[in-house]
Structure formats: structure tokens, C-alpha cells
Amino acid sequence: MTITSPFGQPFGDPLGLPLGQPDVRTPALTPVSDPVLEIRNLSVDYGYDGDPVHVLRQVSLTLERGEVLGLAGESGCGKSTLAYAATRLLPPPGLITGGEVLFTDRDGTTTDILRLNDAQLRASRWQDLAIVFQGAMNSLNPVFRVGRQIADGIRAHRPEVSQKEALERSAELLELVGISPDRLRSYPHQLSGGMRQRVMIAMALALDPQVLIMDEPTTALDVVMQRQIVEQIADLRDRLGFSVIFITHDVSLLIEIADRIAIMYAGEIVEDAAARDVYQRPRHPYSSALLHSFPPLRGPRRELTGIPGSPPDLSKLGGGCPFRDRCAFAFDACSKVNPELVFPDVPGDDPRRSVACLRHDPAAVRAVGEQPLPVPPELSAR
Amino acid sequence: MRFFLRRFMFYVITFWAAVTINFLIPRLLPGDPVSALIAKNQGRISPDATEALRALFGLDQDVSLWQQYLDYWGLILHGELGISFTYFPTPVTEVIQQALPWTIGLVGIATIISFTIGTLIGTGIGWRRGTWADSLLPISTFFSSVPYFWLALIAISLFSVTLGWFPASGSYDRSLIPTWSWEFVGSVIYYGFLPAMTIVISSIAGWILGMRNMMVTVSSEDYVTVAQAKGLSERAVMFGYAARNAVLPQVSSFALSLGFIVGGTLVMEIVFSYQGIGYFLFTAVAAKDYPLMQGIFLVITLAVLFANIVADFVYGVLDPRTRQEG
Ligand SMILES: Nc1ncnc2c1ncn2[C@@H]1O[C@H](COP(=O)(O)OP(=O)(O)OP(=O)(O)O)[C@@H](O)[C@H]1O
Ligand SMILES: [Mg+2]
Predict the structure, then answer these.
(1) CATH value at residue B272
(2) B204 and B114 Cβ atoms separated by less than 8 Å
(3) How many separate domains does chain B show?
(4) Distance between CA atoms of B248 and B237, rounded to whole angstroms?
(5) Could you tell which of A49, A71, A77 is best to mutate to test the pocket of ligand 1, judged by most ligand atoms within 8 Å of the CB?
(6) What residues of A are in contact with residue B244 (Cβ under 8 Å)?
(7) Which end of chain A is more exposed for a tag (fewer CB within 10 A), N or C?
(8) CB contact under 8 A, B231 and A143
(9) Is the residue at B44 inside a domain?
(10) Among candidate residues B113, B260, B267, the one with its CA nearest the CA of residue B193
(11) B283 CB-near residues (< 8 Å, 6+ apart)
């Protein structure tokens, strides 16, 4: 094999791991920040004419190297839009109206993906940042064999690799995700849904990318298959050391795999904290409600409540907090200011977590001349 | 393999049905124009030919219909289609053999050109939808909505009569002897240019539009987005992923349009006095040359059938999903 990883190690090292470097995973709570992907104030509109819908509003997220960042939220809150925008694959009429997506390479150089020219962008795709799309069922071209579809991504970036070598590499990748290598010669319609999903994951790992965005990779699958795939992703991450943005509407799944969780609501991040903190000590009323609307995969059962009401129509958002109509803790100020991400108003909290709720932001409440209310006990568990 | 075998059986049955219908129709026609024609040509039709005609047209009243049917199959399988009245005593097969290459050559090449260029333009327009390229659509649609004979007449009056660039009729310079010489081939191309042009112009819009619409549909498929995400070059995504899938329905309509070449060129061959199969069909109808008519109908049927087989086969090769039916 002549394909080498960015470290000069050959792929498919017979003694060691089949890909890239061994475990470089940073523990989730290291104080030193080493971000591999930073999304800053990303805004996306749908529709070019008169009044576009602001689907993403000033979204900021940081993915640390080696970390699994979970992104959760109800259907329609803009999770997929975020994934598409960050990779510049947004289909029309979607338009990125502002922000930066900073990618930091292993050698420390930082580039803004949104400002790359066409050639640089194509070179960076798959190599730096690969993505597994929500609709894995339709992510494979029905007229080509699976092997060819994995191989062409490799050869697009490594023209010196022969088709035969690329196919050998594809076989290794399939083995990596637990599929028999003779499936290389299968057409997509000959594979089950779970297998196609794994093929997509294998394909995403083809060039040993540093960042993997997975948009609901398990949604179409049964629970057993979901578990298997999530465990496999966690295992691969430990072995290969890539970082993951794992998108789902199922928070209980994230507890299993994520180091950190960001909760999204109506096109904004409303809470961003370590997974355990979100799970045991949610600070935002929406996070808390979301947690209570899914049965936990393990641990004690808790009462399922669901979230009253439905997500707001993004084209009719006025000022104020978008969640206020469904919020049990809303007060006068909530219709006047849209809260920004701040450090929670709970003493002793992890300094790296943040929440966008006026209950935690007395200064913003006072700024509009309202009386701040204290954080309710439900949102200040220790 | 089972797929192809199954299709093969289907075509054998279709062929049988086509020949049977061709056998039955003259027998169901009211009146007996064939007897009259034989009577009129008394003495000029040899006893052998009369026999064959009787079998082909069911004039043998003393033979059962079943026996006639068997005889008819016997003749068809030996490639005998009777003797043309108008070109007596040339056998129908020979007349068709002379006419067919002209039609297939001219219209076939024109159709291939139209398909290729139209599909390429459609690929480009569909890939860059919403740009200036879209303005090509109304222009080509305009030409395809003009009735064909009208377009052909205008082309003749403009390019042959007024400008004198191309001959108005015929298929080659009559002073030349048909051989594989450069001179003769050049003359064939020169004579064929104008008719071919009119066919391309009137049919290209369909290919452009069909391909454009499929490109628009396929471009939003997830696998095209994945191909983009993989960082493949734009050409690779556009041709390898989008156009590769968008072309599938085009291919089947292309094969079908090849099948209709033989029957569908009547107007062109009349307007340009081009002696292909359509021209002969026209003269056969005018002269009540039943053997020739029936022979040409059979050839048309076979052409459509053959095109269907090709379409099926090509589709099966291009789209693995069709090979896997239950
Ligand atoms: N082409 C479009 N035009 C207008 N609005 C759109 C378009 N595509 C998506 N949207 C809107 O953008 C919002 C976010 O959509 P997105 O697909 O990102 O949601 P999501 O969080 O991924 O949901 P899900 O969990 O169902 O996948 C939705 O409210 C949707 O209505
Ligand atoms: Mg989505």
C-alpha cells in the first residue's frame, strides 16, 4: 500500500491499527483548549427574496480535538442545516449570511472553511472533515458498486493510488465497520439499511479525517442496530482519534457517546455543557424538558413528560426568547430580550458550560428594566 | 442471467404476436384488391410468385386458415415477403434491402447526433439551472413546436432555392456510381446534410428538456451531495454521479426513437424525395402495392421490437436494480 496518513504511517499497518494514529483522545475535561473545529456566529437564511427565514442565528460551537460533541434538538430546529452550512453543502435556497467555520489542522494551521476557494474546498473535503448524512438510505449511488464509491473518494484526493489499491483500502474500511469485504462488489440495493449506514461510516473514514459530522446516523434503524452503531463509532473514535459532531434528536443516545452536548432550539444553541452535566444538571428549561421526553437507555427510569406545545415557526419569530411560549419558567422579560449564551447563574458550575436563559442572566433582565427572577431549583441541581 | 432470459421469452412472444397480426390483417380487410391486381397483371406474374402471393394474402380458399398460417410462417422464416407489384419482378425483400440503409444511415445518424448534443446541453443546463443557460430552452422548444414538414419546406426554400447551398432532393449525385469512393460518400453526406439538420433541429428540444429535468431532479439526490462532500471534482460529480443517473430515462427513449426511425421518417423522405423506407411506403400505398406495404410494416414492427430489446439490454447494463426483479 502506498497510501499514507498525514503522519507518514502507511494505512493498513499489519501490526497496529488499520488507520492513522493510535488513541490521541483528549479527556473530555482538559482545561487546555485544542479546538479542531470552531463554528463562530454562523447564520443561515432560507430564501433569497424579500423576507428570508433565519434558520440559524449566530450559532457558535467548538469541537475539541478527539472529542464527541453531541448536537440535539427537536425536528426542524436546524441541526442538519448546521451540518450542511459548516461543510458548505447547503442546497439552494439556503444561504450562509455570516460567520466563520475555523478548521485547525494537526500541524496547527487554521483555515476558515467558508473562505476557501473552490479548489481548496474540494481538497479539504473528506480529507479534513467528512460527513455522514441523515438519509444514509439514499447516500449511495444506486448504479455503482459500493467498493467503487468508497474508492473514488480516495482516488480523488490521492491520484497516485491505483484503483486496485483503493479497493483494497476500501475492503479494510468495510472490515473496520464490521462488514465482510466481499460486499465491495455489492450494489447498494443489495444491502440492508444498517449495512448501508456502516458503509457510509466506512466511506467517511476513508481518508482518515480529523472531523466527522454525523447527522442522525442511526435514526432509520431499530434500537439494537442503533446501539451497535453508536458503540462502533465510539470504539472507532478511540482507535483512530478523530473528533465527532454527532447530531440527533434523541438525547438519551448522546448520553451514551458524547463528551459534550449542545442543545439547539429554533436555530440557536441554548445550552452547551459536558454530557454528564447536561444529563444530571440541565440548566436550560428546554434541555430539562427534552431529557424528560425520552426514556433513558440505561439507568433508573424516570417520568416521561414530553414538551408542551410545538416548536415556533422560524419565519414568525419576533424578539424575545423563542422558547417562552412553552416554558414553565417564563416571566415578563422573556418576551423582551432574546437571551444570549452566558455562564449559568449557579455557583460551582463547570466554567466551560453556558446557557441561554434569562433566569441565569440577571444583567440582561435589568437592562430592559425588568425585575430578575432567581434560578428555579429544577434548573440548579448540583 | 435469468433477467435476460425472461426478457428474451417476452420478445419471442411479442414477435409471434406481431407476425400473426400481420398475417391476419389482410385477411380481415374487406374486398379483394389483390385478386384484382393479379388479374390486371395477368401473365406478368409468374406462377411461383402467384403461389407465394396467395399464401401471403390468404387467397387460397381451398387451404384451411391454419395451413395458410403455417405457410405464411414458412415464407417469413425464409425471408420471403413476396414480389412487389410496382417494382415487378423485384422481390419485396430486395426493395426493402435497398431502401433501409438510406433511412437508417440518414435518420439514424441524425437521431444519434440529436440525442448526443441534446443530452449534453441538457446536462449543462440542468447542472447550472437558474443561469443564462436556461434561456436556451425556449429557443429549442420553439423549433420543436414548428410542424416538421413546415420546417423542412422552409429549410429547402432558404438553403436550396434561395441560397443554393444544398440540393433540394435526392440522396446522392445521380451522375455518380454508388461505390465506397470518397467522391460518392462525400456526395451522400452533402445530400443528406439538410434533411439531417432539419431532423436534429426539430427533435433536439425533447432531448434537452428531458435531460435538463432529470438533472434537476437527480442533482438534489443525497448521493450527489455525498459526491460533493467527498471532494470529487465538479466534472466527476456532474458526469459520474448526476448525469450518469439522469441519463437512464433518456437511454430508453433513445432506443425507442431508434425503433421509430424506420416508420417515422415518412414526411422527411417525401419532402426531400429521399429514397428510404418511408418514401417506398408512400409509393407502395399510392400504387396499392400490398406485398411491399406488408413487408415494410413487418420491418417497422421488427425495428420497434429490436429497439425495445436494445433498450432493455442497455438499461439492464446501466441500472443494476432492474436486473434484480423477483
Ligand atoms: N429549502 C428550504 N426552504 C425553507 N426552509 C427550509 C428549507 N429547508 C429547511 N428549511 C427549514 O429549516 C429548518 C431547519 O431544518 P433542518 O433540516 O436543519 O432541521 P433538523 O434539525 O435537521 O430536523 P430533523 O431532526 O427533522 O432532521 C426547518 O424549520 C425547515 O422548515
Ligand atoms: Mg436533520
Answers:
(1) 1.10.3720.10
(2) yes
(3) 1
(4) 16
(5) A77
(6) 141, 143
(7) C
(8) no
(9) no
(10) B113
(11) B86, B289
Global pTM? 0.81
Ion ligand 2: residues, CB within 5 A, are: A 80, 134
CA gap B298, B95 in Å, rounded = 14
Q: Where are the domains of chain A?
A: 35-258, 268-297+305-379
Nearest CA to B205 out of B157, B137, B151, B297 is that of B137
Residue type, A7: F
Q: Which of A192, A179, A193 has its CA nearest to residue A147?
A: A179
Q: How far apart are CA A229 and CA A232, in angstroms?
A: 5
Hey, how many other C-beta atoms are within 10 angstroms of the C-beta on A182?
A: 10
Q: List the single residue in A with minimal CA-CA distance to B225.
A: A89
Determine the Cα–Cα distance for residues A277 and A195; give it in Å rounded to an integer: 34
Length of chain B, in residues: 326
Instruction: Tell me the ipTM for this assembly.
Output: 0.83
- Asked if residue B185 belongs to a domain, the reply is yes
A221-227: long-range contacts, CB 8 A cutoff, minimum separation 24 = A221/A193, A221/A194, A221/A197, A225/A193, A225/A194, A225/A197, A226/A253, A227/A256, A227/A297
Domain interval for residue B279: 102-285
**Of A180, A193, A186, A178, the residue nearest A147 (C-alpha):** A186
CB atoms within 10 A of CB A58: 17
Residue B233 lies in a domain: yes
The CATH number given to A35-258 is: 3.40.50.300
Q: At which residue does the C-alpha cell 442497455 appear? A: B314
Chain B residues touching A216 at Cβ < 8 A = none
> For a substitution probing ligand 1, which of A46, A215, A216, A245 has the most ligand atoms within 8 Å of its CB?
A46
Q: What is the pLDDT along chain B (326 residues), one digit of tens a residue?
A: 677 788 788 888 988 988 888 888 766 765 555 666 666 666 666 666 666 666 666 565 666 778 878 888 888 888 777 777 777 778 888 888 888 888 888 888 899 999 999 999 999 999 987 777 777 788 878 877 888 888 888 888 888 888 878 887 777 777 777 777 777 788 788 888 888 898 898 888 889 999 999 999 999 899 999 999 999 999 999 999 999 999 999 988 888 887 777 766 888 888 888 888 888 888 888 777 777 888 888 888 888 888 888 888 888 888 888 776 43
Distance (Å) from CA B115 to ligand 2 centroid: 39
d(CA B204, CA A374): 72
